[in-house]
Design a protein that fits this description.
The structure is a homodimer.
Chain A: H1 3-10, H2 14-21, H3 31-44, H4 50-57, E1 62-67, H5 74-86, E2 91-96, H6 105-112, E3 118-122, H7 126-132, E4 138-141, E5 151-153, E6 155-156, H8 158-170, E7 175-181, H9 186-201, E8 205-206, E9 212-214, H10 218-235, E10 239-242, H11 245-257, E11 267-272, E12 285-288, H12 291-308, E13 327-328, E14 330-332
Parallel strand pairs in A: 1-2, 1-3, 3-4, 4-5, 6-13, 7-8, 7-9, 7-10, 10-11, 11-12
Antiparallel strand pairs in A: 12-14
Helix pairs in contact in A: 1-2, 1-3, 2-3, 5-12, 8-9, 10-11
Chain B binds a DNA duplex through helix 1, helix 2 and helix 4.
Chain lengths: 338, 338
DNA sequence: CTGAAAGCGCTTACAG
DNA sequence: CTGAAAGCGCTTACAG
């Protein structure tokens, strides 16, 4: 089934069929013919060949999502938000890499061949963005303080982290451990830095901040905590702040395995507020990072960039268009710090 | 950057460039020219335009994954398995729908326009497969007892469900509740049917089997349990078997909210064995359904079908190629039924 | 072994 | 408002 067949069926030209299907009918196609094309399309069940369309236009309707770590269930809700906003016009192509590994240059190349309408990239490194180049519109997610020439949608975690530190201080904690992600991206650096600063403001210290890190996986986090705990305990650590909820789950598991009570022997907190954090033993105190709004905001910004050209996005954006406000993170206090 | 530019750079024709890039050089391109093309491709950073390639071949390298419920974190590992097996040759396109909703005919249409290399469809209905038609190679995941003309990768849950029933009977349970998924697909019907049958063999009954169901979401499951519990309790239910771990988490939350102790007042079990089930309060007894192997097996089978033509897959498969053995589910007993 | 050329199915100036 | 035609960048018989 091709546009030529539709045209023949409707008694019109392929040009007219194409104009109707692309909504470029204003002053170019008569109402009667618009209707005729629509009827033929419906009757024949015609669908535009995306490859041919992309070839002719120089752009496809594919949006590439580069996520370093789909195993982090946080992405489930981000993706839902993206799909909601993208709607039927664009198709999401997934680039998943190993846990926490940044995609390589050759990964990037493959996607360029798709002539994507745009890229959505979670927590990229500067190097990765350099490789991606100016190929297509781009919005980055959760990449705070990245180069200013790229549109970004971020979280404002400062108040929530302050609240977390105050919360822990009020519970009598004086020395904290920090279980970091192994991914070396700015969002994780910021979480640690802001926590460290907030801890100091609240009369607490963070013990050996670089000691413990793991990929975003429960078992790996449990092992990392197990390795760090002897030193932390010697240092007087009574609370462990984790870079993600998944890390915190690992700590919960390791703590139980070694007979530590939470929060009695050690308090535990995370970042994300995955749904599971309501049912862990004990329920997890965490900084909520709403995933779906992040996905929606990023997708909305990308579509604006695709439709509006350069000045709708971050690329050489004039002063007329400011960045969207960051999404506000909030502290959710539960039993793991009770 | 086009094949023509590569050809010019290498002093050869675009035909030769294409043959080299598609590995069709046997007896068609001299070793020296193969090398020359490779060098030019590398030097110029050339990537084949996928749209043009798909147009010329009539097929793209896109594999469409239709998953009714990406919010189920079970899919994270399935997707990882798929990506592992698909490798760099194919790109995964995501079709996500609302929780538990089957994709519509118009969703299907859109994908046909991509001229996909194949489809991977999780737990489809017969109606959906009819709409999909014979468009491209197809493998379905977790769709037991579906029409036999389609290649499927399934779980063998029978022994695990028997073990689950025996486990519950040995703990003294006599009446079970069943919290079902709202998705009306065969895999969920089977879970309930097999559990019901196994319960009877072990001297137990399942109370009001159709009473309780929800989408695969913690809060919805908690509400469904809350609604069903009064009747179940009156019926003497002491254990609730859930269609997924996520449903079980909802029961755990609802139970805590209403002051029920688990497993003291009510035992709870799930299906999936998500990593979180190790850290819930209490840890969850569940039937483990390994997601990554499911994704890998399905992708492997799809690639075989794409490469081998009709007789490598389920389409009109001769007796020479049997279906792969089902992936075996196993019972994981934990504290929620202790 | 090599290259000229047809053809894949669109989109978009362009002429009318 | 309408249609003929060029052109997008590949792949693949085909002739040599």
């Amino acid at each position: 089934m091709t546009a030529a067949q539709v045209a023949a069926h409707a008694g019109l030209s392929v040009a007219t069929v194409s104009l109707v299907l692309n909504g470029k009918t204003d002053g170019r196609v008569s109402p009667a013919n618009i209707e005729r094309v629509r009827a033929s399309v419906a009757e024949l069940g015609y669908v535009v060949d995306q490859g041919a369309s992309a070839l002719a236009r120089g752009r496809s309707d594919l949006v590439v999502l580069v996520a370093p770590d789909l195993s982090n269930p946080f992405f489930g809700s981000v993706i839902q938000g993206i799909e909601q906003e993208l709607g039927p016009r664009f198709q999401l192509v997934l680039s998943v890499t190993e846990s926490g590994v940044q995609p390589s240059a050759s990964d990037v190349r493959r996607f360029a061949g798709l002539r994507p309408a745009g890229y959505l990239v979670d927590a990229p490194s500067d190097a990765f963005l350099d490789e991606l180049g100016d190929d297509a519109p781009l919005v980055v997610l959760d990449a705070p303080e990245l180069r200013t020439d790229v549109a970004a949608v971020n979280y404002d975690m400062r108040d929530a982290i302050d609240a977390l530190a105050a919360h822990l201080a009020s519970r009598g904690h004086r020395t904290l451990g920090y279980l970091d992600s192994i991914t070396d991206t700015r969002t994780f650096q910021l979480r640690r830095e802001q926590l460290t600063a907030a801890a100091e403001r609240n009369g607490m210290t963070v013990s050996a901040p670089d000691a413990a890190r793991s990929i975003i996986e429960l078992g790996a986090a449990a092992a990392a905590f197990g390795a760090a705990w002897p030193e932390w305990r010697a240092d007087g650590v009574t609370a462990v702040v984790c870079a993600t909820d998944t890390h915190a789950y690992g700590v919960l598991e390791a703590a139980r395995a070694s007979g530590l009570s939470v929060p009695g022997d050690v308090a535990v907190t995370g970042f994300d507020d995955l749904p599971y954090s309501r049912v862990t033993a004990p329920p997890l105190t965490t900084v909520r990072l709403p995933g779906e709004p992040l996905g929606r905001a990023a997708a909305r910004r990308l579509v604006a960039q695709i439709d509006g050209g350069a000045d709708a996005g971050g690329h050489a954006a004039g002063p007329t268009v400011g960045p969207p406000p960051d999404l506000v993170a909030t502290l959710i206090a539960r039993g793991s710090t009770a």
